[in-house]
Amino acid sequence: MNTANSHIDPRTLLLESFRAAVAAADPLEIVAAHLPPPHAGGRTLVVGAGKAAASMARAVERAYAGRATLDGIVVTRYAHGLPTDHIRVIEAGHPVPDEAGEQAAADILTRVQALGPEDRLIVLVSGGGSSLLSLPAEGIAMADLKATTRELLRCGAPITEMNVVRKHLSRIQGGRLAQASKAPVTTLIVSDVAGDDPSAIASGPTVPDASTYADALAILQRYGAKVPAPVQSHLERGARGEIDETPKPGDPLFTRVQNHMIATAHGSLEAAAALFRKQGVQPVVLGDTVTGEAQEVARVYAALVREIRAYNAPFAAPVALISGGECTVTLPASGAERARGGRCSEFLLSLAIELGGADNIHAIAADTDGIDGSEDNAGALCCPDSLQRAEAAGVSARQQLDAHDAWGFFDAIGDLVQTGPTRTNVNDYRAILIL
Questions:
Q1: Which residues form the MOFRL-associated domain (predicted)?
Q2: Is the peptide bond before 95 cis (omega within 30 degrees of 0)?
Q3: Which of 93, 112, 121, 141 has its CA 20 to 30 A from that of 417?
Q4: Which CATH superfamily is domain 3-23+265-434 in?
């Protein structure tokens, strides 16, 4: 380690940087500043969906305490709930939707349709809302929607393209929730998608949708996704103009809708960068829109790390390479049930293999919602001796990666990062610390 930075404990610094990134998107700290003044007229209905829904709802109640009469419904992932006084919190399935989410979405739509022009609708949107706020279109069963979601996940379709399909299978997403409201709408959005496109977050229930049924069909074809017959038929009928499209940009209904982005991946990366800077480590933000296969992204990052170590270019150590976004993991058609972990741990295991135990290089990759893929960890840490410790434990890094069982690798060496649900979500966080 560089003697000028011998005071740095890499593991502690990386964990603190992740905590700083998550804290920058904590709804309990940021929601109040973006709310409209308390409504003096009719009812104020609060609805929402996403991994941050419960904490956003609690933040609304705190901000309006004693100043407004509230009620409403939000739906969040199982184990992500919080106690609230006026806004009902329902837990449901993610990433595959379930009947609890379907019923919650139906209740939300009914409540919104009952509002009048004198009322106000506040919508709380965060990542995960696409599956949690699932209300299938007429003629599509929840089983069909579940099967479609599983197939798109298996094919490795990016979340933005998955959401194009889901919008066109929904009675509530793709701007249809705003369409159902006669009341003015204020939506607060915590972004979990690359580029912070509001129409892609929770499939944009109050945002104009520029995509079409034809786009959804093209996505299924591109990934070779085999979906249930009712889903295929519905999309084909929509493409022929037999079913109404989602409301598009320019539709007059959106004149009564305000959508506010209140937390983003970039803001969280900047918070982490500030922490590194205070510790005398140069932070380099490589972007908040990094996508692609987790293993391939790791290989590119490893090449950059080797360049820095060999030539002190394009950056000189000590440096922290920070990035956000959402990688993908494409699972095989057979054996997928044996995979354990998620895109963060898979990225990190691939990185460890590529770096081969190089000295003074440490890394973290973790999902800001606290859950990376199939298990209960947020992500993992990678150290120079990770491969050596795994070998001593009888664990093959290459075999674990080939089996898409990065969780098993990091669990064996005690380097999982476990936070529990953070009740926010601004996508993945990655930091490579070169000392």
A1: 14-236
A2: yes
A3: 93
A4: MOFRL domain (3.40.1480.10)
User: Phi/psi of residue 421, each to 5°?
Assistant: -60, 130
Q: HSE on the CB side for 396, CA within 13 Å?
A: 6
What pTM was computed for the model? 0.87
The answer to whether the CB of 434 falls within 8 A of the CB of 305 is: yes
Q: What is the structure's pLDDT at 6? A: 54
- The predicted-structure confidence for 296-350, as pLDDT tens digits, reads as follows 999 999 999 999 999 999 999 999 999 999 899 988 877 667 789 999 999 999 9
Mean pLDDT of 345-372: 97
Letter for the amino acid at 132? L
Q: How far apart are CA 69 and CA 66, in angstroms?
A: 8
Give yes or no for a contact between 177 and 123, defined as CB atoms under 8 angstroms apart: yes
Phi, psi torsion values for 244, nearest 5 degrees = -60, 140
**In this structure, are strands 120-126 and 290-293 parallel, antiparallel, or unpaired?**
unpaired
Give the start-to-end residue ranges of the domains of the chain.
Answer: 3-23+265-434, 27-135+170-211+246-263
Q: Per residue in 76-121, pLDDT tens? A: 999 999 999 999 999 999 999 999 999 999 999 999 999 999 999 9
Whether the Cβ atoms of residue 159 and residue 95 lie closer than 8 Å to each other: no
Percentage of the chain with pLDDT > 90? Answer: 90
In the 8-state DSSP scheme, what is residue 405?
B
Whose CA is closest to 336, among 171, 156, 172, 215? Answer: 156
Q: Which CATH number applies to 27-135+170-211+246-263: 3.40.50.2300, 3.40.50.10180, 2.30.30.240, 1.10.510.10?
A: 3.40.50.10180
Distances, alpha carbon 124 to alpha carbons 53, 188, 189, 259, in Å: 6, 5, 6, 10
